[in-house]
Amino acid sequence: MIENTDKIKKNNEIYKKINNSIEDLDKLLKFYTTDISLDKLDKQLEFYNKTLNQFEKLNHTQTILINRLKNDNKKLKAKNESLIKNNNVVEKVITKPLRNNIQPPQFTIDQFLYLKKNYAKILNENKVLKEKLNDKNNNLLKRILKK
């Protein structure tokens, strides 16, 4: 009989331990199920997906802008080179008198840009005017020599 009582006591202790463990597991389960719900997880996932999509759009926009800037940079470099070439031509025309110790004419910015833009036209006009002047001089010389 004593053996049976001891066994019953041991069984009761084991039963209490099992009950305590079950209660602890219940508490843990309640804690995790109340704090993390599927709705919250779905909302978080949706939020993360939206932000990921926004970052992808921003990245795409950024690459487009970078490509545009590269193209603009190439165009500006080409334009800069052509402006430098044109500038060199105009500088040669303006600095030519300096070699002969003659002071170059003073231009306003507008006049300078006009010269730069219409350099070929101006040269042709100058040639025509020189020819006309030479013709007039020749005619005058002929008249003078005839008299």
Describe this structure in words.
This protein is mainly alpha-helical and 147 residues long. It has three domains: 35 residues; 69 residues; 41 residues. It is 90% helix and 0% strand. The protein is built from four helices and no strands. The termini are far apart.
Short description:
Residues 38-93 form a coiled coil. Keywords: Coiled coil. The chain is built from 4 helices and no strands.
Instruction: Bin the strand percentage.
Output: under 5%
Largest sheet: none
Please state the structural category.
Answer: mainly alpha
Q: What is the strand tally?
A: 0
Q: Termini distance? A: 171 Å
- Report helical residue fraction: over 70%
Shape designation: rod-shaped
Helix and strand pattern: HHHH
Unreliable sequence segments:
none
> If you average the pLDDT, what whole number results?
79
Instruction: Count up the domains.
Output: 3
Radius of gyration: 49 Å
Helical region count?
4
